[in-house]
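Chain particulars:
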Amino acid sequence: MAYAAVVSLKHTIQRLLNSSQIPIPSSLPEIIQLTYEKVESLQELFTLEDGSNNQRVKAVERGIREAAWRLEDVLESAHLSNHHHFLSQSHETLNGDFSIRVKEEIIFFTETVKKIEEQLGNASLPEEEEDDVVVSSRIDQYFGLKKPKIVGLTDELLSIRDSIIDFPYEDPERLIVVAVEGMAGIGKTALVTAAYLHPRIVSYFECRAFVSIGPTKSQLRRILLCIIAQINPEFDTSGNAEISDHEEELASCLYSCLKNRRYLIVVDDVWNTRVWDELKKAFPDDRNNSRVIVTTRLFNIAKHASSTIFLHRKRFLNDEESWHLLREKVFGGEKNSCPSHLDEAGRKIAENCQGLPLMIITLAKHLSQAEKTAEYWEKVAKKEHSDIIAADEEFFKVLAPSYHHLPQHLKACFLYMEFFRLIITSLPPSSSSCGALRNFLNQI
């Protein structure tokens, strides 16, 4: 990743500038110091670019990475060559060829950084437009929502339902935002969908809408259109082209559609406070028990959208619930439908999923299509079968947006942690290096 390349280059320049043993030609120190300051500036710019602007960073990453690597290579080779001359020929400085190469790469790097700063300095990269056909297909999926079968989460479903219609708090008439927070694959959307389609909730509200946002820089226009189409199915986007093309007019239209009506809006998978802040302006508070439910992977988004009293942190499944869900998805739900010779391995497989419903469901899909033998299931339980790799890859696609949303410095930290984990698992437990690494990780 580009951020790591920039940090590595910074450390290389530091070593070169701080070396008391490796002399540098008189023409280079000032130029290298200026380059160091430019690298620091670039590192700070990357740090400020958080996950919500990830597309902006991706657009320039390759250029940054290549320029940083090229400059670091020539500095490292100059450093090593000069160190060799220092040891063998006393204080002999870098030769002319090296000085020329260093200057050339510094010029190339500086020009690349200048272009990158201009690109990142833009307000935003152009957002991809969504045509009306795409918007319509997204709207259709919300009209076709199906109630998921909830396994082991009855307590949480009741808690969400109570927050929506049973009013266990003061001043329940006001508009209340309920936030549901939890990591990817933990079942936030399934839980909220089950509540959204609960008969008591369906009958209580005059109108309801369900919209998903996602990690990309979603257009407010698309979100507003999806909600309006569910609240007012007669709204014709083609017949209201002027309104449909402007976010402010659409927000005003939604506000009017909801005015004086008791409504329930589910805003699923929120990643960005800006999008939420713009969207919530379209929700009137007529003190008629209207509700909004927000789901998010990010705790700071949940706190921003809702007060602590209405913040629900989605829990993991316990081992018994995990086994129940796996059995349900593989065999159809009958308690005695799982052959006894698969019970032990099946429970171990469920335990390996660490309480994540999406991981259980993903693995169950592979198990349901494979042979139902004890040998096969034991291999899966021991993570020795290719189906585990396939299931992991599917699950990691869901986790990937969480990684991409991290600030640049935490991405680098995350990759280093995985690197250390691989080293630790390859070292003998008694190794002193292994102990040092474990202590380092514990301190982090």
